[in-house]
């Protein structure tokens, strides 16, 4: 499961936010006033905020599960980061998976030099991985890209 932004912060900050009510409690007790009123009010407010945060996170998770087209939107947003020829190569790898450079040349109708240059650039940006399999260079999308696009 992918991590949800903000959950770790929510878990870390809530206990830290409980420190001021504790200090207010001891300060009020020292002055002879009702120590429970303000400290309990602040703790109740923090608890309500914590519950509201958890409900928002749950709503986000349910929304992502119910709307799988959001993954397609992520792919479209990802592909919009590239120029036309780079997009052709990446779409080819998205649609057909791992393949050698000659297959990419045949499927994209780009020249071998163009594909080689594009792949070198994409490899330097950690978008694709190239490795040798005998005499051929095999190309695949990097694991980082696959995990971000939820392809694995």
How many domains, as an integer?
A: 2
Spans of at least 5 consecutive residues whose pLDDT stays below 50 are none
| Strand tally | 3
Count of helices?
A: 8
Largest sheet: 3 strands, antiparallel
SSE diagram, text form:
Elements: H1 7-17, H2 19-31, H3 35-66, H4 69-79, H5 84-96, E1 99-100, H6 101-108, H7 112-124, E2 128-133, E3 136-141, H8 143-148
Antiparallel strand pairs: 1-3, 2-3
Protein model, in words:
- The longest helix is centred in the first third of the chain and has 32 residues.
- This protein has a three-stranded antiparallel beta sheet with strand order 1-3-2.
- It has two domains: 61 residues; 79 residues, Winged helix-like DNA-binding domain superfamily/Winged helix DNA-binding domain (Arc Repressor Mutant, subunit A).
- Strand 2 and strand 3 form a beta hairpin.
- The protein is rod-shaped, with a radius of gyration of 26 Å.
- It has 152 residues and is mainly alpha-helical.
- Helix 1 runs antiparallel to helix 3 and helix 2 packs antiparallel against helix 3.
- The model has no long low-confidence stretch (mean pLDDT 80).
- It contains eight helices and three strands; from the N terminus they run H-H-H-H-H-E-H-H-E-E-H.
């Amino acid at each position: 499961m992918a991590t949800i932004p903000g959950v770790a912060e929510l878990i870390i900050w809530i206990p830290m936010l409980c420190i001021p009510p504790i200090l207010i409690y001891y300060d009020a007790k020292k002055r002879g006033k009702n120590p429970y009123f303000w400290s309990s009010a602040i703790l109740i407010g923090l608890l309500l905020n914590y519950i509201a945060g958890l409900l928002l996170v749950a709503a986000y998770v349910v929304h992502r599960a119910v709307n799988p087209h959001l993954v397609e939107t992520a792919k479209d947003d990802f592909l919009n980061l590239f120029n036309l020829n780079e997009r052709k190569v990446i779409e080819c790898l998205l649609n057909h998976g791992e393949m050698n450079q000659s297959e990419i040349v045949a499927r994209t109708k780009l020249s071998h030099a163009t594909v080689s240059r594009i792949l070198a650039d994409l490899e330097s940006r950690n978008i694709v991985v190239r490795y040798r399999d005998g005499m051929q260079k095999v190309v695949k999308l990097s694991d980082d890209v696959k995990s971000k696009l939820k392809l694995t």
